[in-house]
Amino acid sequence: MDGWEILHERYAKALFLASEHAKCSEDVLEELEWLVALLKNEQLQLHSVFSSLIIGRREKEDVLESICAKARFPEVMKSFLCVLARGNRLNMIHGIFLRYRDMFDQSRRRLKVFVTAAEELKPSQKEKLAQALSRRLKKEVDVAVKVEPALLGGLKIQVGDELMDFSVKNSLEAIMAG
Questions:
Q1: Has residue 130 got a pLDDT over 80?
Q2: Cα–Cα distance measured from residue 32 to residue 104, given in angstroms and rounded to the nearest whole number
Q3: What is the mean predicted confidence (pLDDT) over 50-58?
Q4: According to the model, what pLDDT value does residue 158 have?
């Protein structure tokens, strides 16, 4: 882990423990997800504001207060965001969200599985895949699908550090190399 990942982990753990204590960890997860999506909205340019070295801490705090006033964040979340603002660390929110989500899922015995497919999966296919993986892994599985036409067909399934490549592209490359 590099320095940023360590900081993401520490901040996420602090927020997770505080939100578990306040019994609002699921609400905090939803609000973090909303905030990250808001920051990704290029029209609003909020990410640029929070990562700018030119814009002062007070101005960033004002923008954050405006967001908090419109959103219905749990008190734990508001306090946490204020801590990030005071430390000029609001630009770390995406990494913190990813680690927080991992901690939340782990605490609920949920596993995030990333699937890459050549084309969009039908809802019934995605559900069958999730059920099969849940049985195999003995955990509730949340499947996130990414489309990559270059695979030609089949799937790539990422579970933690393990990658299972069942793609046509991989099979063809193996045949050609063999």
A1: yes
A2: 12
A3: 83
A4: 93
What gap in Å lies between CA 91 and CA 47, rounded to an integer? 7
Angle between helices 93-107 and 25-40 (to 10 degrees): 150
Q: What distance in Å separates the CA atoms of residue 41 and residue 34, rounded to the nearest whole number? A: 11
Tokens (6 digits) for 45: 């340019």
Statement: residue 9 has pLDDT above 90: yes
Residue with tokens 């960890």: 25
Is pLDDT larger for residue 31 or for residue 52? 31
Predicted structure pTM score? 0.69
CA distance 159 to 21: 29
Residue 28 burial by CB count (10 A; 0-12/13-18/19+): exposed, middle or buried?
buried
* Separation CA 167–CA 172 (nearest Å): 9
Q: What share of the chain is helix, strand, coil (3-state, %, to 5)?
A: 65, 15, 20
Q: Are the CB atoms for 139 and 170 separated by under 8 Å?
A: no
